Prior knowledge:
The structure holds two protein chains of two kinds. Chain A has ten helices and 22 strands.
Amino acid sequence: MASIKLAHITKNFGSVTAIKDINLDVVDGDFLVLLGPSGCGKSTLLRMLAGLETISDGAIYLGDRRIDGLPPSERDMAFVFQSYALYPHKSVGENIGFPLLMRYFRWWFHIPILGSIAKRRVERSPEVAQSVTRTAKILGLTEMLNRLPRTLSGGQRQRVALGRAMVRQPEVFLMDEPLSNLDAKLRTTMRAEISKLHRNLKGTFVYVTHDQVEAMTMGTKIALLRDGQLQQFGTPREIYEDPANTYVAGFIGVPAMNLIRSRYSDDGFRIGPAAISLPERLMAAARKANGPTLLGVRPNALRIGRSDVPDTLQGTVVLVEQVGAESNVSVELAADAMSVEQDQSSNTIIITTPGYSELEPGTLISVSMDLEQAVLFSEKTGERIRD
Amino acid sequence: MTSMSWRHGMHISAVLALLGVAAFPIYWMLVTSLTSSAETFADVPRLVPDLSQLPIYNAVFSTTQIGVWLVNSAIVAAGTTVLSIALAILPAYALSRLQFRGKGLLGLCLFASQMLPEVMLVVPLYAIFVTLGLLDTLLGLILVNSAFTVPVVIWILKGAIDSVPVELEEAARVDGCSRIEILLLIVAPLIAPTIAAASVIAFFHGWNEYVFALTFVSSEGLRTASVGLAGFVGELITPIETVMAVGIIYTLPAITFYLVAQRYVVAGMTSGAIKG
């Protein structure tokens, strides 16, 4: 069983704490994506799983086996590096077969000539040669087995790196931003290939990325990290529809969720001076908060409309971005209705409208909201308020 | 186009001039070795070798022990090279990759050891060699030469190991390599050009070394070529053409070794390892 359990994992670099008390349970066959901005500790966490980095506190289990004290080679995990890390002096075939060669490696293989003969015999042995050929065939590298890595394109090198991981048939695949060096088109192709690989191999994958599109499309589970702390752990749908705090809400979704300053008091729920009627679920949460809140609304749940409709916000168009199938309209709300985007305050919200928007900057508009999917956060802590 | 060819011409001329400066002493040595004693000190020096003097090379081999000296020099130089690389690669790796207390100081000490002149160490080393019974042995010379080349080789190899991407080593660790296997299977092949360059330095040090070879070896049969060559320079008479002929013979194996080693001194081995 290749389930992974991280229990109270902490990592200190000197006085800096890179990872703070992380707990995760990854079920066998899951595709876990560790997501977060640069420097959030996601790569460190992956390297600790691989054994390339020691842990300062906590425990890592693979199935029932505690593995945090084991060297990388004994963890039955393969690692695909962001930079590919192919051995430049070895051919594609030798690169792929290297983990298998090391399985049979003996000290006397270091003796010149004798060692070379022994290594060649291992490489040509049926089990090694067949594994290499089979892996190369799956990845479409059969024609390139004798070529050196420097003669390959980025995508081909990435496939060799995947091959070197696959050939060992490990229980767990660890991947550190493996697609970040590829161009956009190749990235889309490789994304699909890795997903296919996950379905076919049925192994447990742990994948690090800062790209939320990769996370949403590939992952069966996402762990969103910030400053070494776990913000939320769940399926892509849970993370998108049910964010645990304003950070998650702002990180997931393009454009990000709008967070609009609001307040619940005795005279009801208001955004600025405008009274807003909420669905019962949200109203219960607002009553519970009883004070300043942030109303989280996705850009596609906002509509540009007429000003005489109730429950609308007034604003001015400041920017219209045409994305092709849809347009992103930035709207500056009237001064006393503020939105909070990530860590900085601004009173601009983004509305996604289908098709090509003819709106001009400077136009006064009304914004109506579909609050069925909206969520409410505490303005003070940024945490989600549930009914 | 004319400016390009003009610059190309200048380039060629500069290379030829430098080549002339480097090659002239060897040519002069060759010409002098093939000049009769009578002509050597003539007012107008000979610029073209006198091929009738060629038998002097035969005579040198038959009248001196140059063959034995060359073999001794080769043993000392090759021994120094092998021992230096073998001893230097582990500390070079440690200095490059491992973090330990006193690392900076150790590196500095290696540098400092290069500041001591060899002559200053002759007497203390002589005393040590007497105790260890290493006097009058080629092994002693190999050891003492290696002591001088190892620090240099460590620094050269450390620089090369620094440039090997750490990810390669991490990949090897995941693939099941121990530290020593990483060093021998991954790092060493990648820094082969630098190992070749360091070998050239160690070999030439062993081949050219004179002071220790003169002091620590007294048997005629264990003399190295550098000492043997100097032995021709007498107080009263120096047979110039013989010295030059021996000089040419002494130079050839070293040039051969360099030509073999320099083929491996090629750059670009790590390209393709990581992105780009």
